Structures are given as C-alpha cells and as structure tokens.
User: Fold NmrA-like protein from Macrophomina phaseolina.
Amino acid sequence: MRELSAKTSFLQVGYYLDNWSFIKGDIRGDRDEGFYHAGLGNVEEKIPFVWAQRDTGPLVKTLVEAEAGVNLLGYSELLTWKEYMQMWGRVLGVKLGGDCGSGYKSVSAEEIKAGIQGPEEMKMEALESMQYVQEFGWTGGEPGVLHPKDVSVSLLAVPMRIG
Assistant:
C-alpha cells in the first residue's frame, strides 16, 4: 500500500463558484433587503473558490504531468466571502445585505441548518462542512498542501475580480 501511495497525487478542490445555485439557502435575502451568504466563520478568512468547469482540467493536467506525491489545493482564486459576494452582487446587479451590507452575515449553526432547503441529510452535510472548515481550515491542517502558484498551473481562468 505504501508503494502505491508514493505514486499518488491529490487534488483537493475548493468551493465551487456556482454552489449558490444548487444549495438553496447558501445565499439568502431578497431584492429589497439585499442578499447575503450566511456563514459561521470569520468574514476575513480566504476561501479557495474554484470555477470548476473552467479550471479543473488545467489543475488535473498539472498533477498528471508533475512528479508523484503532490497534494494540490485546487482553486481559481482565494477570496473572502465579502469579496465573493461583492463580485456576485455586481455580476447579477443586485443589492447586498447582511452585516453592514457586506454580503455576509454571521449566524448560528441552527440558523444555517434552518435556512437550507432540502432533506435533513443535505442540511447536516452543509452544516458539518462549514463547521469542519471553521475548526480545521479548508485542508484540515494537512502539511505540504500546495497552491496553484506553487506548481505553475497554466491556463487557469483570469482572476475573477470584476470592476
């Protein structure tokens, strides 16, 4: 087994940019009061957002061409939730709500779970994922995790900043 693991590389994929369109309750609010992401953590924490349809291919290609043993955090850009929501609001032309109009609102675990639409299992998966990242970080504190800049990933999407 150790022989095989020495030949293995890993891609830890970041938070999909379009999760908001699939996870009902990830982004909350309305056009009048404004929209916001409801989260548990620090608004200043950088999240590895990935434009999966565009950037997963170049990330995997880099791993295939690299020497074995690479553990890569795959993302298009590191953004805080506030930065992401500012971009999201500009692209969709909508007002942001949340804490001080930042597009982010810190809420309790119970509020996270109550706001997600879907079966209980989906609510728990979303909540437990948020709690894990808040406690251990996106990669769980695993040593040696590389970022795209560390392995010269080419052809990633242009930075997602708009305006």
